[in-house]
Amino acid sequence: MSVFVVGKHKQRLMPCTEKRARLLLDRGRAVVHKRYPFTIRLKDRTDGELQSLRLSIDPGSRETGLAITREVGNKRHVLSLFELVHRGFQIREALEQRRAFRRRRRGQLRHRQPRFNNRTKCKGWLAPSLQHRVDTTLAWVDRLCQLAPITSLSQELVRFDTQKLENPEISGIEYQRGTLLGYEIREYLLEKWGRECAYCGDKDTPLEIEHVIAKSNGGSNRVTNLTLACHPCNQAKGNDTLEAFFTRDKGLKKRLRQNKLSAETRYQRVIREQKRSLRDAAAVNATRWALHRDLNVTGLPVEVGTGGQTKFNRMTLGIPKTHALDAACVGSLKAQHDWNVPTLVIKAMGRGSYQRTRLNKYGFPRGYLMREKRAYGFQTGDMVSALVPTGEKTGRHQGRVAIRKTGNFNIQTTNGAIQGISHRHCTLVQRGDGYRYHQTATIQPKGEGKQVA
């Protein structure tokens, strides 16, 4: 992938190839400015000829694809690919945990009058887990614009019709009628599942409402995630997955034999009746216009493309589907070249926590953390390189470090975590910025260079 280049006074210059960057470093004409994404700074130049670069964005609920391309007429040449992994679901879980702890403590505290300012939301307000997606994407758009002379932006402004995802034939007044029109939830489930247990097929027994994907595993209360189960099946399944429950539970197999039913048939029926969650589609719908408004504030021209247009470009050019390559195919496109480059995966990790203790499931402290955020010149999240001369961990290890007060650190590498590395063997590569980086393998080309009809 291309290497970012900045001038002597950090002016944005055109990216160069890895070979040219290596020559500039070997000849002493440049120094390493930033490791992730890799950037060099020239010692003897402050300007240069610039070309048109486009930053394309493919927003997603869990990952967002970013691609920097060089435009030559109606053709694009891919320079860099990025995949930004969000942490919106971790934020939601942390807020739910805080809310549970507050609820437990509320009975032990004096009554406090509510504050009105805490109960109003401004226009355009988004939940913290959704606002994180917008802010993180904008932060990386701003960061890449500081490293490369970006002249235009492209965004896939996709919209998901959540009702049409469930019923492709819906139209007209049917949009005003919900799934439970004329039914209570229990009556709806009784009719949907034929008044029998969805797992073992028992009929003449009390039935209980059951979550197919347990709430502890991220399941929702949406009616498509609900089913009916007898008491033995409900208790035996617990928070297991469907596959594990149908494979390992001996009581379920016994009841299926008594009812002369096949485990594979019942399993496939539950999978067929259960519909996928619309949580990701709702997150994209809620943030798409907020992201579009903020991109317009940058002052760069913003091109808008649809999801169908992106898919057409990608399939016509024979490009594999990834978030980063989807971003490269956003908008009007005639030809795409040099797309077979590695992708830099950027995972949002946060910048630590103010909480200096760990809590058990009841909200009581079970251990205290060190008060200082740094130890021996390192901080959790820094990228380090450790050269261990002897012992079981002999070799060079590079990755994200987790510090310990004892001085024996843990390093998260691409091959797993290496524990117990002394701080004396560690060398700082880049200060932690709230993200973790790694590159994916190169994708084999499939029809590169085809033209769009």
Helix content: 25-40%
Which regions are unreliable across 5 or more consecutive residues at pLDDT < 50?
444-453
How far apart, in Å, are the first and last alpha carbons?
A: 28 Å
Radius of gyration: 27 Å
Q: SS-based structural class?
A: alpha+beta
Please indicate the percent range of residues in DSSP E strands (runs of 2 or more): 25-35%
Total count of strands: 23
Please give the largest β-sheet.
8 strands, mixed
Average pLDDT score: 86
Form type: globular
- Number of DSSP helices? 12
How would you describe this structure to a colleague?
The structure is a single chain. With 453 residues, this protein is of the alpha+beta class. Helices cover 29% and strands 27% of the residues. The chain contains twelve helices and 23 strands. It has helices at residues 18-26, 88-106, 128-147, 162-166, 185-192, 231-237, 242-248, 250-258, 263-273, 279-297, 307-317, 323-328, and strands at residues 3-6, 12-16, 30-34, 39-42, 53-58, 63-72, 75-85, 150-156, 207-211, 226-230, 302-305, 335-337, 343-348, 357-359, 365-368, 374-375, 378-379, 383-388, 395-402, 408-413, 416-422, 426-430, 435-439. The strands form six sheets. Strands 5, 6, 7, 8, 11, 12, 13 and 23 form an eight-stranded mixed beta sheet that branches. The chain has a five-stranded antiparallel beta sheet with strand order 21-20-19-18-22, with no helix packed on it. The chain is globular, with a radius of gyration of 27 Å. The two termini are 28 Å apart. Mean pLDDT is 86; it is low at 444-453.
